[in-house]
Amino acid sequence: MFRKLAVAVLAAASVTACAHQKPVVQAEAPAPPPSPVAVAAPPAPTPPAPALKVSCATDMECTSDQLCTDGACTAITPSLAACGLTRVHFDFDEAVIHPDEFTLLQRAARCIRANQPAHVLITGNADERGTVEYNLALGQRRAAAVSTYLQELGVPAQRLELVTYGKELPICAQHDEACWQQNRRAGLHPGGTPRDITAQVSADEQREKTARP
Which CATH architecture has domain 84-211? Predict the structure, then answer.
């Protein structure tokens, strides 16, 4: 009897001990890090194809920001030689632009519109014949005629500065018609600065007064 009781107590104690024992959980092995995804390098940019020069015979065959130079349309830039000083010439005692000069002024207007300089100096000149006073007025009319034509071609008036030199600044000093024709002119000077001819005008006016009978 006593032996059966002892066995029963031991069995009960064993069950109780097992009830309080925490179950052992086997830790899972950490998952391996994901393999890096290969990213394809972006394609190298394709360099722009060089602009093809369009052949031309006149400026009208080019875009508004180009001139036809050496048979090809060329971009207008401040350093383009064709956009530099432009001269147009007049008949004797006239301030009317000759039709032969229209193409030069149309080209100059195209350059001015594309380059947009702060101002363009327009100078009016005359040959040596006539008085200082008369030729100053004639030079002014010639400069004004050029200014008016440029404005008709779309050049803003506020960019045009007019000055007359009359006969005071000749580019040819011979006393013949070939030379006089060169001096009867108007010049377009992008960004030009007027020259002070006050002393020359005073000297010539005094000379004219002295020469009068």
Answer: 2-Layer Sandwich (3.30)
Summarised one tens digit per residue, pLDDT across range 129-140 is: 999 999 999 999
pTM for the structure as a whole: 0.74
Residue ranges in the chain whose pLDDT is less than 70? 1-42, 47-52
User: To which residue do tokens 């039709």 refer?
Assistant: 99
Every domain of the chain and the residues it spans: 52-78, 84-211
Pairing of strands 86-89, 160-166: unpaired
- Beta carbons within 10 angstroms of residue 59's beta carbon: 20
Query: What is the DSSP code (8-state) at residue 67?
Result: E
- Give me the helix-helix angle, 102-115 and 132-152, nearest 10°: 60
* Alpha-carbon span 70 to 87, nearest angstrom: 20
Q: Which pLDDT belongs to residue 45?
A: 73
Cα–Cα separations (whole angstroms), residue 59 to 74, 106, 110? 10, 9, 9
Confidence at residue 213, expressed as pLDDT on a 0 to 100 scale: 74
Q: What is the pLDDT of residues 6-33, one digit of tens each?
A: 444 444 444 444 444 554 445 555 666 6
C-beta of residue 208 within 8 angstroms of C-beta of residue 131? yes
- Residues 66, 76: contact at Cβ < 8 Å? yes
